Amino acid sequence: MAKRLTFKDHREDIKIFKRRVIIAAIAVIGLTGMLIFRLDFLQINQHHQYRTLSKQNQVTLLPIPPKRGLIYDRNGRLLAENLPIYNLEMIPDRVQHLDETLASLKSIVKITPSEIERFRKALKQHRKFETVPLKVKLTEEEVARFYVNQHNYPGMLINTLLMRHYPQGENTVDALGYVGRINEDELKTINKANYAATHFIGKIGIEKFYEKRLHGTAGYQQVETDASGRIIRVLEKTPPIPGDNLYLTIDINLQQAAKRSLADHRGAVVAIDPKNGDVLALVSHPGYDPNLFVQGIPTKTYQALQFNLVSPLFNSAIRGHYSLGSNIKTFLALQGLNSGTITTHTRIQDPGWFKLPTANHIYHDWKKNGHGRVGIRRAIIISCDTFFYRLASKMGIRRIDSIMNQFGFGQATELDIGEELPGLVPTPEWKRASQGESWYTGDTVLSGIGQGYMLSTPLQLAVGAAGIAMRGQFYHPHLLLQHQSPDQKQHPFTPVPYNPINLPEKYWNTVIDAMQQVVGSPMGTAYRRFGHAPFSAAGKTGTAQLFRYRNLPKSKIPERLRDNTLFIVFAPVQKPKIAVGVVLENNNNAPVIARKVIDAYLVEKKDETDKPPVL
Amino acid sequence: MRPTNPPYSNPYSNSYHRQNRGLFQRLHIDPGLLISLLILAAAGLTVLYSAANEDHTLIIRQIIRLGIAFLVMLGFAQISPNHWQRWSPYIFIIGLTLLIAVGIMGVVGKGAQRWLHIGFLRFQPSEIMKLAIPMMLASYLQDRVLPPKIWHLVVCIAIILPPVLLTAKQPDLGTALMLACSGACVLLLAGMSWKLIVGLTLAVMGSIPVLWTHMHNYQQQRVLTFLSPERDPLGHGYHIIQSKIAIGSGGMFGKGWLNGTQSHLNFLPEHATDFIFAVAGEEFGLMGGIVLLIIYLQVIFRGLYISNQAQDTYGRLLAGSLSLTFFFSIFINIGMVIGVLPVVGLPLPLVSYGGTSMVTTLAGFGLIMSIQTHRKLVPK
Question: Residue B15: its pLDDT value, please?
């Protein structure tokens, strides 16, 4: 290696370095230019897009629940209200010593270990800044005690919620139904935006049928939030629109009277104003307290109700299917007269039994030795079976079905609850399809006394009674009287009429006159049980046999197998104001109950009922 | 290893002038550099005040750190480059030893171990290396002929690699990258041939697959996220998306000081540390960003100017590489915040909240001032 090569040439070194520094400086400028170019792209070119994204980041829409509409009876008495309940809640984010806080809270508010367990579970499912309920439904004393000590509990707060409450409890549940927590199936069908802040939804009854009207429209507030979702401030607010208030056709006094009169029995009462189809009372007994279902019913309580022999959860007034029994005779009488099968002068000899010419089977009258010579009026008053066996077999099932359908049997009455069952008016086609058998004349004969396949609900009985009371000019029953929108305007409900049943006036007179005798004449089947009334009334009894027994004393038959009694009645006979259908299971006192209900409406509350509703 | 004679000086004329030196020269302060750095620090504090949600204690802590760092800088400037050059190997060896010590502690302690606790002091040995590597290389090349021969380059790479690998292993990819960068800057300025540069670059590119398999899971995630941030908007892509929203929504003039919603409402993560440039971009817009870049460029060009004025190879290479490394740390940080480079976790020098790197950065400028203010004046 030559020494020259290792000799350092400073001038050369400086030249090399200078060149490199210049290149580096150019690179620095170039790269900085790149950065600025990119900044320009983001901040000028795409500024609009990023500004929108930034806005979306910070602004959130929060729903505000609307106030659910109230429900009143026809006289303006409150049936469903929204009561504030006080929940103790925690914002976990703001509580420093969780266990100590919980321990010391116990001295102020009663907290059970199971509530703490539930709280700890909920704690994991919520975000840190969201409130988690610790204890629901504080008593007023607990609320007061908490507020006095609140400074000791940062992060704890009392949240006031509006919760549905039914002051009449069991009395009104059959018509009103109840609300409950929204479940997953309901989530799929509701408008999610409108229900975003709503916890409760109508489950059955009026609460469900008029859910849309009662619920109202959710409001919104635009809030600025931080990245963790905490609200910084409110930017804009659209207030919610409360739901409509509903006025029902129910008369709470009547409803209570019906409930009271059923006290020791199982059965249903439906009372209708025949003039317009207003349902004045709708009771199924035994019932249950709807308030249990609002906040969520404990499983044990629910099972006790569900597996109860007397089925308190079952709304028998609109879903109970019963054989009509002798009630059918009034309708058959009308059809018999109108179709010319019989006249008002037709008389038969009743030996106490009936036999079809083609068969050997003997159909017994309820009275072993018969009623002697019987015409149409007396046949109704004493409820002669033989007369109607014969009439039914002569008329044939088609004519029977025709009149029953005209009076609203065998189809839903379109009551605005929506859960009712349609009953059954059997046709030969129906029997072929469901039983796989052809229709026998014997089936027609049995229909004559309402013991065949024909089924009716108590509601349909009341509608039928109203149909007779109004001589064929009657209405579909309905529970809504009017609704009041948030602007305080009243919107009356327009009743929907049934197709009028046009029969000659004399036939109506004949049948109604006979029905009046049923309750008014000592011969009448309801005379003893309905009793002397200060108003005119027309009715018809019916008994549906559940168990065939011969000469067995009643006391020896188990209660569950004793006959059901049915009763239809309306009053007063001229200008009817109320038509009632009663079904009493395993008991024969249906007319007694009907009397009590009508008394409550016409005698005790006479002054009020004629007045327009007080709103 | 004696210092060579300054260039342009006549080795036969013995006239070193000590008179006519200004006050700054005597205090060993370069006023141009100092003023630029002070402006930068003030701008940084302004942005940080907003980024830290007007948290006074945090700002005061940052001011104290800045004060200490400036004192360190002035202290370093007092020592002549000759001394620095002589101490360079020792500083490098001490730094490397500490780095190994930390690595061993990391193995024992299981997990990332970057910090060394000495009494109340706490620092990262890798930060020392930011200065020690260029010092060591400049010192090694001081007496060598430029451009360095292949053999010298091999020695240089042997000096650079151990600290880089140890730091990457910690794992601190960002700092490792800066260490490699500081070494590479020395070699570039020393006139390493372009052929070699291209060759080495290709070699590094080729080693990426090997590197990939050795990367920690979170590091791999960061690279993947960089390639497509929208792939994972709530996970790893969140940082980049939010910082792009912050900058993009700033527009030309920004939303105004203290009015950045992205940072004040916590949408932007790490907005006081690594992502602080996004806050500046959001609140001061494109104009603010350009002004900040201009301040940085002023510092860098003053550094490059000083390196050009330096009187020996050591001074030239050290001042030049420190200035360039400073630039690259800015470029990489801003590049990752605006989504053109992967998120490697580097602070924005002198603006981000945090201590150790600030001290080493200003210590580096102390060295540059030392090089500038200890020059021997030469008669015309």
Answer: 42
**Which of A5, A8, A11, A13 is the best mutation test for B, with the most CBs of B within 10 A?**
A13
- State the alpha helices, DSSP H only, in A41-80: 47-58
Tokens representing residue B257 in the block:
């000081």
Distance CA(A334)–CA(B223), nearest Å, equals: 91
DSSP code string of B182-206: HHHHHHHHTT--HHHHHHHHHHHHH
Residue A614 pLDDT level (bands cut at 50, 70, 90): very low
More confident of the two residues A137 and B33: B33
Is A314 in contact with A174 (CB distance < 8 Å)?
no
Give the alpha-carbon dihedral of A106, A111, A115, A116, to 10 degrees.
Answer: 10
Answer whether B244 touches A (CB < 8 Å).
yes
Q: What is the ipTM of this complex?
A: 0.88
Domains detected in chain A: 60-248 (3.90.1310.10), 252-602 (3.40.710.10)
DSSP letter at A496 equals: P
Collect all residues of chain B within an 8 Å Cβ-Cβ radius of residue A6.
Answer: 145
Would you tell me which residues 290-349 of chain B have a C-beta closer than 8 angstroms to some C-beta of chain A?
A: 290, 293, 297, 300-301, 304, 307-308, 313, 316-317, 320, 324, 327, 331, 334-335, 338, 340
Q: Which residues of A are catalytic?
A: 326
Say if B3 is an interface residue toward chain A (CB within 8 Å).
no
Distance CA A314, CA A285 (A): 9
Report pLDDT digits (tens) over B89-124.
Answer: 999 999 999 888 887 776 554 445 566 665 555 678
